[in-house]
Amino acid sequence: MTTVQITLPDQLAQEAQRAGLLSPPALERLLREQLQAQRQDGFFAAMGRMEQVAEPPAMSPEEVAGEIRAMREERRAKASG
């Protein structure tokens, strides 16, 4: 278990204490909620960046077959050479 010391303005500390927000369970809950919110924000920001990336055009079946053929020829050349 880790002990954390924080500095708050007196009025805020008093209000938080009266509201029960400075108890270890309340602080743990608040921190976990904030961490989850940050992870979600990061996830949605990444999704937004991904939407901006242009998707390469789809390959036709003939292009896929050509790529497979070229890969096999390259492997054969390496194996025999």
Give the total of domains. Answer: 1
- Pick out the low-confidence regions: none
Main β-sheet: number of strands, strand sense, barrel status? none
SSE sequence, one letter per element: HHH
Give the SSE layout:
Elements: H1 10-18, H2 24-52, H3 61-80
Report on this structure.
With 81 residues, the protein is mostly helical. The chain contains 3 helices and no strands. The termini are far apart.
Highlighted features:
81 residues, 0% strand
Write a short abstract of this structure.
The chain is mainly α.
